[in-house]
Write a structure and sequence with these properties.
Blueprint: H1 9-40, H2 50-86, H3 90-93, H4 98-122, H5 124-134, H6 149-166, H7 170-188, H8 195-201, H9 208-214, H10 219-222, H11 232-236, H12 268-273
This protein binds zinc ion (2 copies).
């Protein structure tokens, strides 16, 4: 690759630092806010110690951050800057600018994210890695940190493709990434709303109860409900299937995770090597897709 925009490297580095700081503030702010709410108003009881969960998932995040930063983060940022400088992508072709570009880019990127998440459940190679996220037998804000580095690296390559296809500005990409980060922390958090608020809110965004159904052991719900920020994509593309009652899946013990979840969900060895373990190659999606209990809002 020829870095013809290298004269801007200093500028890029400054922006890199600013965006990094901004993302870190959003990430830490969201994490502490959710941890605080979970402390005072948890939706479910704690089957595994909170400190154990925080330490395990926090350590995973630390390893992932170092690896991903080295392997893909900086090249991806340089790629976004290059795409913006060259004026590549559909958004430029459509002539989108300012707040319109920002808004449309966030919606389009969220749509891409929906299809990418769905592919992670449909394509065996991708599911092998994404499965790591779903082997958590519980769910709280720290579950948002539970990913295999393999998934993150493949995701970054796919994101590079989205970037050149759509052509978001650097700012739009930054806003999208911050929204994804906060949304993931919010919808994984062990919190809940009253039925009426939940019904209204989940018509617009993915709520904790909405995403809990995606983590249900019952795969008719767990193999559906793929949206990340906006919930409309599941309804639009036929993957919306939530239990009639929250208690039917997420609110009872043993209802979260996978039917074939490992015996050691908090083992570093299992986290890192299960995706390449021969005994894990069947990659069963294990479950009915009966659609029982389907509700429509
Ligand atoms: Zn998933
Ligand atoms: Zn999740």
């Amino acid at each position: 690759m020829v870095f013809t925009w290298l004269p801007d490297w200093k500028h890029n580095q400054a922006m890199d630092v600013n965006l990094d700081t901004g993302k870190l503030i959003v990430f830490l702010g969201g994490l502490f806010l959710m941890l605080l709410i979970e402390t005072f108003a948890p939706a479910r009881g704690w089957q595994t110690g909170r400190l154990k969960r925080l330490l395990f998932h926090g350590s995973i995040a630390l390893v992932n951050t170092v690896l991903i930063r080295l392997l893909v983060y900086v090249p991806l940022l340089l790629w976004i800057v290059r795409v913006e400088q060259e004026g590549w992508g559909l958004s430029r072709w459509l002539g989108l600018t300012g707040y319109t570009e920002l808004l449309v880019s966030v919606i389009v990127l969220d749509l891409f994210d929906y299809f990418w998440h769905r592919a992670n459940h449909r394509v065996p190679l991708l599911w092998r890695f994404h499965k790591t996220h779903h082997t958590d037998p519980g769910m709280d804000v720290t579950t948002a940190l539970r990913f295999h580095p393999g998934e993150l690296v493949i995701s970054a390559l796919v994101k590079a493709l989205w970037i050149v296809l759509w052509g978001p500005t650097v700012i739009a990409w930054f806003v999208f990434e911050c929204l994804v980060s906060f949304s993931a922390q919010f919808h994984h958090a062990n919190i809940d709303f009253s039925d009426s608020i939940e019904t209204d809110l989940s018509k617009i965004i993915v709520t904790p109860r909405y995403h809990a159904s995606h983590h249900a052991v019952d795969r008719s719900y767990g193999d559906a409900n793929f949206s990340t920020i906006l919930s409309c994509w599941d309804r639009l593309f036929g993957s919306y299937n939530r239990p009639a009652s929250a208690a039917a899946t997420a609110w009872t013990e043993g209802s979260l995770g996978l039917p074939e979840a490992p015996l050691k969900p908090f083992s570093f060895q299992s986290w890192l090597f299960d995706p390449v373990n021969k005994s894990n190659l069947s990659l069963s999606r294990a479950g009915s897709r009966s659609g029982k209990g389907k509700i429509k809002y």
